[in-house]
Amino acid sequence: MSVYDYPINTIDGTSLDWSRFKNQVLLIVNTASKCGYSRQFAGLQQLYVDYREQGFTVLGFPCNQFNSKEPGDHNEINAYCEQNFGVTFPLSEKIEVRGSSAHPLFQYLTETAPFQGFDLGTQGGEWMNHFLQEKYPDILEGCGIKWNFTKFLIDRSGQVFRRYEPTIEPAEIEADLQRLLAQ
Fold first, then answer.
1. Which residue, among 76, 66, 84, 81, has the nearest Cα to 139 in the 3D structure?
2. What mean pLDDT do residues 173-182 have?
3. What is the reported pLDDT for 161?
4. Which DSSP letter does residue 148 get?
5. I need a labelling partner for 75 at 20 to 30 A (CA). Which of 95, 123, 165, 179 fits?
6. For this UniProt entry, which residues form the secretion signal (predicted)?
7. H or E element that contains 57
8. Are 154 and 160 in contact (CB under 8 A)?
9. Which residues neighbour 150 within 8 Å (Cβ) at sequence distance 6 or greater?
10. Which contacts of 69-73 are long-range, i.e. CB under 8 A and separated by 24 or more positions?
């Protein structure tokens, strides 16, 4: 199995053509426009611009499952991302990424790269862990997605290389991205 085995629709409702991403390095991210982590759109876009000519693409997957931070329809989501962060990388239709209704792609991603905890040695990791324990303790259970902007770096064969939790900024992924692009 690989990410290419899971049909998905783009934000405009057409079927995503996975063949155009084969042999590329991908960064799959569940996104939410109104989330405090939405600032990461800028960093994701920068990675996309800096590395797309080397065979890299960011794929954003809008989701409204975490504190209702993606309430808009597809047109509103697309416009917000373009106008506020200059997003030009592909976005999918709004999907669910955790629980029994999680899209099969995200079931595959979280089974392949389960949650390993937040880095409690960082302020962001400690804060996120405390926030979820206090407000949403059920989210911490299991291997699923814990919040918006969980990222999965995918190698050129469509296999998961590494999972990064929301507290990891896009620029922090750059060394791993460069390593995969060089292979």
1. 66
2. 97
3. 98
4. T
5. 165
6. none
7. strand 56-62
8. yes
9. 29, 30, 97, 163, 164, 165, 166
10. 69/32, 69/33, 69/34, 69/35, 69/38, 69/148, 70/31, 70/32, 70/33, 70/34, 70/35, 70/94, 70/148, 71/34, 72/33
Structure tokens at 71: 């309430």
Beta carbons within 10 angstroms of residue 84's beta carbon: 13
pLDDT digits (tens, 9 = 90+) for 97-139: 999 999 999 999 999 999 999 999 999 999 999 999 999 999 9
Q: Residue 17 corresponds to which tokens in the numbers above? A: 């053509």
Q: How far is CA 112 from the centre of its chain?
A: 15
Number of residues assigned to the chain: 183
Cα 149 to chain centroid, rounded: 5
Residue 64's alpha-carbon distances to 78, 179, 181, in angstroms, are 14, 32, 32
CB 160 within 8 A of CB 28: no
Q: How far apart are CA 40 and CA 29, in angstroms?
A: 10
Question: For strand 151-154 and strand 56-62, is the pairing parallel, antiparallel, or unpaired?
Answer: unpaired
Each domain of the chain, given as residue ranges in start order, spans 3-115+147-182
pLDDT band at 94; cut points 50, 70, 90: very high
- Cβ–Cβ < 8 Å for 56, 24: yes
Collapsing DSSP to helix, strand or coil, 95 comes out as coil
